[in-house]
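Incident log, entry 3
Record: DUF86 domain-containing protein (86 residues)
Problem: checksum mismatch between cached and fresh output.
Input:
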Amino acid sequence: MQREPRVFLEDILTAAVKVEKYTQGLSFDDFMDNDLISDAVIKNILVIGEATKNIPDEIRQKSIFRIYWRDNDVKFKSKDRSAFMV
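Fresh output:
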């Protein structure tokens, strides 16, 4: 049975929040020296990658960000510059 796209989006958000939590306040060197944290971050990045494979095209096209989902080179561009205004 196929999961609903919302569940995959929740998985992506949960994993991204964990990555942010695990790396907050860490320098790059501290991150690289801590196998536990770097392994946890890599695992969550893999979760994000796997979940993105299951997001239907119609949802991807509605995003305010242009995400090149299938490029080897991940790039993000905003369709709406106001998304970055504070």
